[in-house]
Amino acid sequence: MEEVQKTLSSSPLYNDEKPPQRKISCFRRHRYRTLAAVAGTIALLGITLGVGLGVGLTNSGDAPKSTSTVSADRRSASPDATASQASGCQAGSLNLLGGLVMANTTPLWQPLPGTPWQIVLSQPIDATKALVPALSVYDIDMYGNTALTIQQMHLQGIRVICYFSAGSWEAYRPDAGLFSYQDLGNNLNGWPGEKWLNTQSKGVRDIMANRIKLAAEKGCDAVDPDNLDGFETNTGFPLTASTALDYLTFLSVTAASYNMAIGLKNAGPIATNATCLVEFSIIESCISNSECSIYQNFIAAGKPVFQIEYPLGAPGYVTSQALSRSCKTNGNVGYSEIIKGKDLGGWVEYCDGTVFNTATY
């Protein structure tokens, strides 16, 4: 994942909210993952695939058993997915295993490649009036926004992606006291009060399942789980690329059990293998990191890549040269690109030079 920045929110308090400090993705923190995910419904299908399927999600290695909030037959994943398999994913049909439909259920929301979007994490959205830009997809902080706000956004025809950190403990979150001490690892470098989590712990997964449940109760259409790639650094736990993808599988199954979509945040090296686990990708600074092309598998699978660039001068003072450098690359054809400031506030600029300031509290 990328570096984060926190600011204080000045939003009013509603029911289950406490005054949160905003946690914002800004710059790349970690880089590579490899594949290891386990399927959840192979026994129900009674089939054998030549890619080595056969391990259920709840029986994979030392992964914790799924909680009651997870329906194991809602999603499954091939542990050996390839680019050709991923391109066979059927958009929004709860189908992993290279395009094989896994369950006869209501299709998940599946945005299309090139769908315009906006992301605002540092302040709560003010949806009491028509939002600008008038787009169909917004990514907002799950804790900082109320169910009423999300309902107001839905009335404006907006699909809402809800952000939360799935891989780190944050002292200011309302459920911070629920985590077991032994599941809290090393400090996140540069961010006091934030610690890595043991994502293989059943206790951590139960809390994350409850966060996804809260997102569903608030009316979120999808979730944006952050900080899944702690295995790239010294977290204090024996996390690996394999456990990271296993964890993503767990989150994906849980979100699907509430008919919510889910996205992959950065983690380009597993983009091919994760394409059928998620409905979209959110990437940051892929131009400056020279890695945009590795997400093209999503476009081939009919799924969008929501791209954020942070050029000098943003927000508000991006030169035409900086805008050009942040928008033009052969590797991001079909991506949904936006220019943002590091705080991920209401300001946004698009590659055609249009600028908007989304209303916030």
UniProtKB/TrEMBL annotation:
It is an enzyme of class 3 (hydrolase). Residues 1-13, 61-71 have a biased composition (Polar residues). Residues 117-346 form the Glycoside-hydrolase family GH114 TIM-barrel domain. The chain crosses the membrane at residues 32-57. Its EC number is 3.2.1.22. Residues 1-20, 61-86 are annotated as: Disordered. It holds the Pfam family Glyco_hydro_114. Keywords: Membrane, Transmembrane, Transmembrane helix. The keyword Transmembrane helix applies. It catalyses: Hydrolysis of terminal, non-reducing alpha-D-galactose residues in alpha-D-galactosides, including galactose oligosaccharides, galactomannans and galactolipids. It comes from the Eukaryota. This is alpha-galactosidase.
